[in-house]
UniProtKB/TrEMBL annotation:
InterPro entries: Sec7_C_sf, Sec7_dom, Sec7_dom_sf
Top-level taxonomy: Eukaryota, Metazoa, Chordata, Craniata, Vertebrata
One GO-annotated biological process of the protein: regulation of ARF protein signal transduction
Protein's name in the database: Pleckstrin and Sec7 domain containing 2
PROSITE patterns named among the record's database cross-references: SEC7
Gene expressing this chain: PSD2
Ranges for domain SEC7: 30-152
Amino acid sequence: LIYLCDASLKDTLSDSDSDMGSTEQLDHGSTDTLANGCKADSDAAKRLAKRLYHLEGFKRCDVARQLGKNNEFSKLVAEEYLSFFDFTGLTLDKALRTFLKAFPLMGETQERERVLIHFSRRYCQCNPEESTSEDGIHTLTCALMLLNTDLHGHVR
């Protein structure tokens, strides 16, 4: 993702650059600030999340990489992406299975961890009657992932 703070920089991008699947530009007048001082645009996050969800210019294997980045814009994108999922009334394992059918969870441990944190947050939003905290849901999610790996992850 490219974050542009200066309108003149934004104007220098060619049309071919702006059409690339992994490029999303931020509007100059946005109000959300990133940690590096650039402005995060929630509309750009919504557009990118929609493109990721519908795989418009992206492959399934690109999704986790985009959602697992550690910056404010990527957090907005992940929040918007997860809004496409409705886990209301689903058990945790069924919700996790539904979520992970959309893309393979690949990447570095920290990236996968961030994706699972976003999932846990969304699961709690969809199931507010659950007495388990977001941290508890995240712990159970990680346990399910470990058990699944133990059961099915052996290379023969």
